[in-house]
Inverse folding.
């Protein structure tokens, strides 16, 4: 019931649910705050765990185990690969928000991952970005491991 009118929940082939754009969403569209019961510790970590870090350093965990305690944002599935990610999760104040990281056309599923600084705080990896250019996949010019050039430490190179 908290779902914005420009989004819809659809059942996927595997039986899971996902959140999809009904209309075009422009880059930097903000959703939130994420609503859920807040606890000191999770009983079981979810597929996309969220916390807020207080000024004293103590984290507060978002308990998403009960759909009735959360808003629609709990139904956004995490991105498994960088090219699937179109939302970024980050902490602002004592809340978590999702922001679109690119324009999202109608019919596209929203997929979220952590912003860089927030991923570090959450001890989660960044999604690996596939390197590509107009000419296809990026490759190093010289095959094999990079060569290391020792430095003297005097600012003049080797």
């Amino acid at each position: 019931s908290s779902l914005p009118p420009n989004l819809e929940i659809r059942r996927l082939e595997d039986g899971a649910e996902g959140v999809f754009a009904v209309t075009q969403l422009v880059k930097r569209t903000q959703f939130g705050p994420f609503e859920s019961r807040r606890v000191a510790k999770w009983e079981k970590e979810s597929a996309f765990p969220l916390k807020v870090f207080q000024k004293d350093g103590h984290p507060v965990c978002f308990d998403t185990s009960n759909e009735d305690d959360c808003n629609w944002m709990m139904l956004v599935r995490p991105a498994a690969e960088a090219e699937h990610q179109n939302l970024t999760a980050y902490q602002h104040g004592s809340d978590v928000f999702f922001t679109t990281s690119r324009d999202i056309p109608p019919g596209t599923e929203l997929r979220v991952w952590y912003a860089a600084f927030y991923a570090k705080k959450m001890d989660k990896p960044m999604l690996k970005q596939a390197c590509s250019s107009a000419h296809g996949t990026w490759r190093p010019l010289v095959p094999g491991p990079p060569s290391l050039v020792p430095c003297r430490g005097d600012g003049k190179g080797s």
In short: The chain is about 5% helix and 30% strand. Confidence is low (pLDDT under 50) at residues 132-158. The CA atoms of residues 80 and 143 lie 29 Å apart.
